[in-house]
Design brief:
This protein is of the alpha+beta class. Helix content is 51%, strand content 15%.
């Protein structure tokens, strides 16, 4: 039976056939998208996805001609959540949204394989200014 039919069929756990309970919806959504339901499944997915800090850095340096890339794995090593500082001349005269779109398009396949991605995009001039502020 297709997942949609299971949602519509009234059951004890799903009294309203039009609006399923959160548990039923989450279970069906996870099955239909292939999302990991446990930490073990997430770790296994990360190990097979091939997304690493080094691969992300290399891709950004190649596609955006980034002068500086600092990426941190925030997921505790499973490779599902990353935060990044990216310095590139390509960000010149672009607002934050345009910068993020540029990075996201460069990492389209990688971002599809991970859970969370938080870029901080700076021009070389902004990076130098931040470094001076941090040293005081």
């Amino acid at each position: 039976m297709p997942p949609l039919a299971r949602l519509i069929r009234p059951t004890v756990a799903n009294i309203n056939p039009i609006r399923p309970t959160r548990a039923v919806w989450n279970r069906t959504f996870a099955m239909s998208t292939g999302a990991a339901e446990t930490d073990t499944q997430a770790a296994n997915a990360a190990s097979t996805s091939g997304i690493t800090v080094a691969s992300l850095e290399q891709t950004l340096k190649e596609k955006l001609a980034a002068e500086h890339v600092d990426i941190e794995d925030m997921s505790g090593g499973c490779g599902q959540a990353f935060t990044a500082v990216i310095v590139s001349q390509a960000f010149e005269k672009k607002n934050t949204l345009a910068r993020h779109r540029l990075v996201n398009s460069a990492l389209k396949t990688e971002i599809a394989a991970i859970h969370a991605w938080t870029p901080k995009c700076l021009t070389p001039e902004e990076w130098v200014k931040k470094q001076k502020e941090a040293s005081f």
